[in-house]
Write a structure and sequence with these properties.
Its EC number is 3.1.3.25. It is an enzyme of class 3 (hydrolase). Residues 282-319 are annotated as: Disordered. Pfam families: Inositol_P. With 319 residues, the protein is of the alpha+beta class. The protein folds into two domains: 7-136, Fructose-1,6-Bisphosphatase, Chain A, domain 1; 153-316, 3-Layer(aba) Sandwich (D-Maltodextrin-Binding Protein, domain 2), CATH 3.40.190.80. 39% of the residues lie in helices and 22% in strands. It contains nine helices and 14 strands. The protein has helices at residues 7-27, 46-62, 94-98, 170-181, 193-202, 215-227, 252-262, 271-292, 305-316, and strands spanning 35-39, 42-45, 67-70, 84-92, 105-112, 115-123, 128-133, 138-140, 143-144, 157-160, 186-188, 207-211, 231-233, 246-250. The strands form three sheets. A seven-stranded mixed β-sheet has the order 3-4-5-6-7-8-9, sandwiched between helices. A five-stranded mixed β-sheet has the order 11-10-12-14-13, sandwiched between helices. The protein starts with 6 loop residues before the first helix and ends with a helix.
Amino acid sequence: MSSNLHPMLNVAIKAARAAGAIINRAALDVEAVRISQKQVNDFVTEIDHASEKVIIDTLLTAYPDHGILAEESGSTHGNPLADHIWIIDPLDGTTNFIHGFPVYCVSIALQVRGKIEQAVIYDPTRNDLFTATKGRGAFMNDRRLRVSKRIRLQECIISTGFPFRKGDNFNQYLRMMGDVMQRTAGLRRPGSAALDLAYVAAGFTDGFFETGLSPWDVAAGSLLVTEAGGLIGNFTGESDFLEQKECLAGAPRIYGQLVGLLGKYSKFASAGDKAAVRTAVERLNRERTDDSHNPDTESTDTVSDDSAQASDERKDAPF
């Protein structure tokens, strides 16, 4: 670790690498890992807990007066009233991990009086370390990061996450994905929001959007993106997004185009936009219900004529 790094960032790196060592050892025999389910399709393992413990122990040993907000233990450790709060996801991408799918990471951020000032995302499978200090830039290992230079949405790869919890509005997400997929070079769903944001910062992808995220999913990645020259906010483009459970990030020109596409799906959208989305989703619900009762209809027939219309719109789109 470099002596030029902020001392708090150095401690976070130490914590992330210790957690990564636990994760890598467990990955050698992932079938032996004990797994429990928090809710439908939302898993936690003994490795999540062990990783979180070593991170918290490392941070509080160095800074005993700081607070902790962690995915598994919440605010039960440290001083919850402190100006300095560490926001921790000990294993982002648990579902990937328990299947042996090597896309997961450790995410640690330091929030100081409400602003994210330090960030570490560590990918133990590739030994990739993403770091940022507010005002000092973002880095992957020793390389300075900059977001993608692409300005045409149709040339871009966008990452996202699919809804998986009970009560998620799946049909609305289908509409969102349809809007994005037909106007880009591709949509990706790797399965770790923290890494998704790190990849936007690195320019590996051009943008990212997802709903239902918690602060520990996006805190560290948000600083990486902004320090790499990108923008991050909610679907309407407002920067105060951390607690809002909707996240949109990208290179500046791409971010603006994505806000134009996805803003109407935001819970902060105008009443007119919300009504239009509800009408479209209700129509999709009816179509899917009708198709489910028609044994002669293949799954591909569930795509409405809106898709053909959107395809035509794409030909005329100014990007």
